[in-house]
Every structure is written in structure tokens, then in C-alpha cells.
Design a protein that fits this description.
By secondary structure, the chain is an alpha+beta fold. 44% of the residues lie in helices and 14% in strands.
């Protein structure tokens, strides 16, 4: 799976200065929901919680990559787990 660039939008204004629809969308996402942004009546962008994004990224990555587990009864060596954790963390932060 090719890694897609992720844009980070840092909102530096106080909550009082954010437009009400933006604040409602952020609140919904923080409470576990998903917000969508519409342009000309078409849903163009989904905004989701970072943990949900990481779970989706890991699931998609796992679906297209061969399993690193050679013997499921044995599992992964600690070094392999650490390596995979660093790899996923680098793509999701």
C-alpha cells in the first residue's frame, strides 16, 4: 500500500473565534462521530478521530501486506513488534 501524504490543519484560534459549524463538527468528532465537509452539496471530505484513522490505516495496511507472522502459534518476536510499531507510528502521526 502506498502511503498517502496527510495534511495537518492546526487550528490555533480560540474556540470562541471558530465558526459555530466548525466547532460543532470538531465536537462531534471528539465524541466519536465523523464529520463530513460538503462542497456544492457533495460530500467531499470526512473528518474522523485520530485513533479511528490509525485503526483504519492499520486495517488497510494489513489487508494489502503479507502477514509478518510466519507461525501463528509462535507469534512475532519482540524485535519485529517494535519495528512494526515504529513503522505504523511514523505513518500515523
Amino acid at each position: 500500500m502506498e502511503d498517502e501524504p496527510v495534511m495537518v490543519l492546526a487550528l490555533s484560534t480560540s474556540m470562541a473565534q471558530r465558526p459555530e459549524p466548525v466547532q460543532r463538527a470538531l465536537d462531534a468528532v471528539r465524541l466519536g462521530g465523523t464529520a463530513t465537509l460538503e462542497v456544492d452539496g457533495e460530500q467531499d471530505v470526512a473528518v474522523l478521530d485520530l485513533v479511528d484513522y490509525r485503526i483504519l490505516w492499520a486495517a488497510a495496511h494489513n489487508a494489502v501486506q503479507p502477514s509478518p507472522v510466519e507461525d501463528p502459534a509462535v507469534g512475532l518476536a519482540d524485535e519485529k513488534v517494535a519495528s512494526l510499531s515504529r513503522s505504523v507510528g511514523a505513518h500515523c502521526s
